[in-house]
Specification:
Length: about 350
């Protein structure tokens, strides 16, 4: 890839951060007002009920990737992009997507790099899992689908990608829904220990720092994922069919390399790639998020303990509401779809759309 193309790619994500949002007090009436339901609760239940479903997948090419994504709702609806985490897939939104589509939104649910049908176009492209890479993938997807702006919503890796875009390219993000609040990684402080109970839940991240862990993920990716599902969401009674449906996404040829690089890079034990150097430099400053945001914590999250949100309030310079969702674990959109749909809908309805 030429230096000219590399520079253009860097620019996509590292443009000016934009103007800070209005204060929460000033915008509360419009921001907190719920969107019109569009369908009754009974109708929404009918949309999402029934036998185990597989989301249909389309493909679109960016400069680096052939991205697999699910699309639902009218093409002229307000765009909503839903981003999954690790080790999960687009079916975290199997209920959320049709509920939002029934409200008239254009819903896009992509497989992240290294997952599902998303593929690299060139064998020479670095298989980076760093936060700037997954954030830039979102911008590239929006460009490929001719989406100038959208509400971004996600959890885990997907929440981080959404936070990266919201912080570095706020003109592309009308509103943000992020599970576990501000997810941009503070890599400079990665050597600082967390409380032992939290560290215990991150065992896999330390495992992946070793060659033994890389081989373990290669050989036993589904077994590791199933353990994480149970630990991350101890109250979620998922069945085998639900897990197997998601695990199909882990057969991606780049899955292991992307996952290993992600967890090594975030702990400062693997270098990033030059393509994302400028963006990572900006992210290292932990930029504030200025767009209207709703942050959610599952009260039964087994990997990231729920909080009242006050500890990260300074990271949100624009309007922000924080909610705790009782009885729900880490995979919040799949465990509590209505709470997630409500948060997205409020941002769509109260957003300052420019297009």
């Amino acid at each position: 890839m030429s230096e000219k193309n590399l520079s253009r790619r860097r620019f996509l994500l590292t443009g000016a951060a934009g103007v800070a949002g209005a204060t929460l007090a000033a915008s509360a009436p419009a921001f907190a007002a719920k969107a019109a339901q569009g369908v009754t609760d009974a109708a929404a239940a009918a949309v999402t009920g029934g036998a185990l479903r597989h989301l249909s997948v389309r493909q679109v090419r960016t400069e680096l990737l052939d991205i697999g994504y699910h699309e639902a709702g009218p093409e002229n609806g307000r765009p909503v992009i839903l981003l999954h985490g690790f080790p999960y897939d687009i079916h975290s939104y199997v209920d959320v997507a049709p509920m939002l589509a029934a409200r008239g939104y254009r819903v896009i649910v992509p497989h992240l790099r290294g997952h599902g049908t998303t593929r690299f176009l060139s064998a020479s492209t670095p298989r980076s899992g760093q936060q700037a890479a997954i954030g830039e993938d979102v911008i590239a997807l929006m460009d490929a689908l001719h989406i100038p702006e959208a509400v971004l919503a996600g959890y885990d890796w997907g929440g981080r990608a959404a936070c990266v875009v919201a912080a570095l390219r706020p003109s592309r993000c009308v509103g943000l829904v992020s599970v576990n609040s501000y997810l941009i990684q503070d890599i400079a402080r990665a050597t600082q220990p967390l409380p032992p109970q939290v560290e215990w839940g991150l065992w896999y991240q330390f495992y992946f720092q070793t060659e033994r862990g890389r081989k373990g993920l290669e050989a036993s990716r589904n077994d590791i994922a199933r353990i994480l599902w149970k630990n991350n969401s101890p109250t979620w009674q998922f069945d085998d069919a639900t897990f197997v449906r998601a695990a199909e996404a882990f057969n991606n040829p780049d899955y292991v390399e992307i996952v290993i690089h992600s967890y090594r890079h975030r702990l400062g034990l693997a270098p990033g790639y030059p393509l994302y150097e400028d963006a990572e430099r900006k992210l290292a400053k932990l930029p504030a998020i200025t767009v209207p945001s709703i942050t959610l914590d599952g009260m039964a999250d087994g990997v990231v303990p729920a909080t009242d949100g006050k500890g990260q309030a300074a990271r949100f310079a624009g309007p922000r509401i924080h909610r705790q969702i009782p009885g729900v674990g880490h995979n919040l959109p799949q465990e509590a779809p209505q709470a997630f749909v409500d948060a997205v809908s409020e941002l769509v309805a109260g957003g300052k759309w420019r297009t």
